[in-house]
TrEMBL record:
<dbReference type="InterPro" id="IPR011263">
    <property type="entry name" value="DNA-dir_RNA_pol_RpoA/D/Rpb3"/>
</dbReference>
<protein>
    <submittedName>
        <fullName>DNA-directed RNA polymerase II subunit RPB3</fullName>
    </submittedName>
</protein>
<dbReference type="GO" id="GO:0046983">
    <property type="term" value="F:protein dimerization activity"/>
</dbReference>
<feature type="domain" description="DNA-directed RNA polymerase RpoA/D/Rpb3-type">
    <location>
        <begin position="2"/>
        <end position="44"/>
    </location>
</feature>
<keyword id="KW-0804">Transcription</keyword>
<dbReference type="GO" id="GO:0003899">
    <property type="term" value="F:DNA-directed RNA polymerase activity"/>
</dbReference>
<dbReference type="InterPro" id="IPR036603">
    <property type="entry name" value="RBP11-like"/>
</dbReference>
<dbReference type="GO" id="GO:0005665">
    <property type="term" value="C:RNA polymerase II, core complex"/>
</dbReference>
<keyword id="KW-0240">DNA-directed RNA polymerase</keyword>
<dbReference type="GO" id="GO:0006366">
    <property type="term" value="P:transcription by RNA polymerase II"/>
</dbReference>
<dbReference type="InterPro" id="IPR036643">
    <property type="entry name" value="RNApol_insert_sf"/>
</dbReference>
<dbReference type="InterPro" id="IPR050518">
    <property type="entry name" value="Rpo3/RPB3_RNA_Pol_subunit"/>
</dbReference>
<dbReference type="Pfam" id="PF01193">
    <property type="entry name" value="RNA_pol_L"/>
</dbReference>
Length: 86
């Protein structure tokens, strides 16, 4: 989506930005298993940074919060509330 906003305060633009970010369904990386790390960054730093990435896609629209998932009783280990990336 592209749009142009004119003749308004930056606080209005910031409010619109916050609303748009909140309304786009995203998933986040919650569990990271690192098999080997030869970088200068430690595993916890990399895991934390991965968790900050908002991931979006068509599938994110239909996913459930793991705490509300009745298919796995909130374990977060089923196809309705989790995705595994390798
Ligand atoms: Zn589930």
């Amino acid at each position: 989506m592209k749009f142009e906003l004119r003749d308004t305060d930056s606080c209005i633009a910031n409010a619109l930005r916050h609303i748009m970010i909140a309304e786009v369904p995203t998933i986040a990386i919650d569990l990271v298993e690192i098999e080997g790390n030869s970088s200068v960054l430690n595993d916890e730093f990399i895991s934390h940074r991965l968790g900050l990435l908002p991931l979006t896609g068509e599938r994110a629209m239909s996913m459930r919060f793991s705490r509300d998932c009745d298919a796995c009783d909130g374990d977060g280990q089923c196809e309705y509330c989790s995705v595994e990336l390798n």
